[in-house]
Structures are given as C-alpha cells and as structure tokens.
Amino acid sequence: MSETTSDPAPSGPTEIPPQRRLIGSRAELAAAVDEVLALKPRLLRIAAQDATVFALDQRHVVDALEALLHANRQARVQVLVDHAQWIETRAPRLKQAQRRHPHAIELRQASVDDPVGEDLHLIADAAHSIDIRAGKLVSGDLWLNNRPRAQPLTSVFERRWSAAAHNLPVSPLGL
Fold it and tell me: Model confidence over 113-171: pLDDT tens digits?
C-alpha cells in the first residue's frame, strides 16, 4: 500500500464519542462538512460524480481545505470524481488550491470501468464519514469517530483511486 493511501491515525483529539447524525437538508450537509473539516484530518477523501454535493466549488470550503493543509504539513486531500470537466469548469478555486498545494491536493477522474456513480462519500482519517444518498433531496449520515462504518467506504475509495491510475494535471496540458 502506498504512503498516500495509508490510513493515518486521527490527528485531532480522540475523545469524540462515536456518534451518528442524520442529514436531511443542504444546510445540515454544509454544517456536517464544516464539522469534519474542523477536526483537521490528516487524510481527507472525497468521492462524488462531480463534488457539487460537498460544495467543493464554494470559497469557504476551499478556504477550509487550505487551512487544514496549513495546520498540518502532512495533511492530504484526495478527490475522486466521475466528471473531471466539472473541476475544470465549475471549481476554479479548487484548481487554484491544487496549484498552490500540488503535493497535498490530488484530483483524479474515476475509471469508466469503476465509476463513483451514486456513491457520495467524504471520509476523514478512516474514522469520520459523510455518506449521502443520491436523489432530488439531500439525505444521508454523518458518522464521527466510527472506524467500522468508515472502513468499507475507505476500501471502496482505495479500489477506485487505484483504478483511476493518475492524477489530473495541476495546470492545463499544452500550455
């Protein structure tokens, strides 16, 4: 297993009791993303068709990702999407953050043989996770400090990450 996909120990306090919260609205999802980012994980993995659901095109989320990277030099962010064109056209702040932190932010397009599809996950340090069900309405779960729940999501993410094979370029090719 490579060093970039190994599961580091949580960097924050481990006194958080295991808990589950239901997510039933976009506001609750935004609050859940902010809460997970506030835990300052060392490894953050995001899998979605285009990452819109986790607001990776919003300034405050990208700023929180950069704050996470500044707080811990070993922190890494891995984003796996089905539609890489979304990153190029709808998430310029995320691309700019990748240019500033090419060692820490990795973006990949999922393999056509194993797409992300309707699996929408945010996994932090293989202990905290947000699992969203695809549909017209936002619904899902926030799991804090629950490794048994995050482990299957981590395994699926690692399989898809390896199948994707290479990172998207930091700057456009051909320039």
Answer: 999 999 999 999 999 999 999 888 999 999 999 999 999 999 999 999 999 988 888 87
| Encoded amino acid at 6, one letter | S
> DSSP secondary-structure letter at 120?
E
Q: What is the 3-state secondary structure (H, E, C) of 7-70?
A: CCCCCCCCCCCCEEEEECCHHHHHHHHHHHHHCCCCEEEEEECCCCCCCCCCHHHHHHHHHHHH
- Burial pattern 155-165, b for ≥16 Cβ within 10 A else e, equals ebbbebbeebe
d(CA 124, CA 163): 21
| pTM, rounded to two decimals | 0.88
**pLDDT value for 117:** 92
